[in-house]
């Protein structure tokens, strides 16, 4: 199994920004935890982060072209604004699990709408960095059933 973990805009600022919403861990610490989880569970994981919408879209397309098993995606603010990322997910045949560190439904009203949710395999929100592990578990379980 090969899984891609994508993080969108401003997630490179984890540990520095809005600690009440996002915690104190850094992106590097998160990626190290995810790499350890992947190693422990016998699958390949690639983590990427970009503040650029087009780059995220290219990586989503490439994941299918490269035969990856699935994507865990935290699109950040693009979740609430990007029809282009929504369309990229709809254009591929591999599952995408949408994740959010904070509970977006307890935050500002504009964060309550996701363009991604209707085309994602599922959404996990509000459990801190554990949302990524839960997303990986969902993809692993889905692959075992499929």
TrEMBL record:
PROSITE patterns: DEHYDROQUINASE_II. The keyword Mitochondrion does not apply. CDD domains: DHQase_II. Pathway: Metabolic intermediate biosynthesis; chorismate biosynthesis; chorismate from D-erythrose 4-phosphate and phosphoenolpyruvate: step 3/7. It is an enzyme of class 4 (lyase). The active site is at residues 22, 100. Substrate binds at residues 74, 80, 87, 101-102, 111. It holds the Pfam family DHquinase_II. GO terms for molecular function: 3-dehydroquinate dehydratase activity. Its EC number is 4.2.1.10. The keyword Amino-acid biosynthesis applies. Belongs to the type-II 3-dehydroquinase family. Homododecamer. This is 3-dehydroquinate dehydratase. It comes from Planococcus shixiaomingii. The lineage of its organism: Bacteria, Bacillati, Bacillota, Bacilli, Bacillales.
